[in-house]
Amino acid sequence: xxxxxxxxxxxxxxxxxxxxxxxxxxxxxxxxxxxxxxxxxxxxxxxxxxxxxxxxxxxxxxxxxxxxxxxxxxxxxxxxxxxxxxxxxxxxxxxxxxxxxxxxxxxxxxxxxxxxxxxxxxxxxxxxxxxxxxxxxxxxxxxxxxxxxxxxxxxxxxxxxxxxxxxxxxxxxxxxxxxxxxxxxxxxxxxxxxxxxxxxxxxxxxxxxxxxxxxxxxxxxxxxxxxxxxxxxxxxxxxxxxxxxxxxxxxxxxxxxxxxxxxxxxxxxxxxxxxxxxxxxxxxxxxxxxxxxxxxxxxxxxxxxxxxxxxxxxxxxxxxxxxxxxxxxxxxxxxxxxxxxxxxxxxxxxxxxxxxxxxxxxxxxxxxxxxx
Length: 372
Hints:
By secondary structure, this protein is of the alpha/beta class.
């Protein structure tokens, strides 16, 4: 496993713990119109079938409802979902079935896409079959050495205590505020959240990711100031409920969705920050020698990037849509956990995986020395 993939494995252990309370999004996806049902496509593909592998959590269930079932209605294709627990499980299934492929599409994290690409188990999709890619923000169209098609964005920002802050903080600088000494949590050194916090500190101190020394100096000012160093969502939720925490980050509000939906936990999050927020691109990939029709697979990938489908998925599970034409309802646009395409374009930061792999070990050591 390369350094990059080892790093993404750590990230995946976090992503695989995504917990969404049923109906945790504050908007109803049903308020959106269904994607247009084209009879020509239905006639072209009707009677065929594809098999799609993805997560078994609420994100996977939302994909079944909003992507797979609507694609069936549009085309007459039968879509067989296979829902499993983790990205690592998906990697294992694709490797185990490599001699006799069973799946046509896999929806998974960037770590998984890169791992399968490195193993030579993916084909490069024919992008001419995916016209909606033209409306995807350029940075999020493809990845995994050209084997991955962008899907949605997982977003990381700042979480805070709603009793302590009546309005969302506008900067990560509250982590350094004297009033929050002993009332913040910080991410563990080997977690992507920590790498993101290093970049936040570097920018705040006048540097950047390539010149982070001043950022590590700033992080040293947090030594002894955190209540805990953790990425355990259950622990964090309990500490907010007990009024032990005022803020923490970098961290994803999506991980705290079961608690955000309950007022007694006093916790919420924001991406509307002066320093911006961080995004991790999820992918759709196509295994080599997949059994289904290539044109049907291309049509399915294109359907997942349809602006109305992207809007439905964003509202269902707080994903960040990547189709710039995705239109969120008024309620969704007022929900701080669903970044609009405009906000993503203006504020989102995506860390280059190759760069991160090159500095990971050094940054872990320096971060540990700075804050622990």
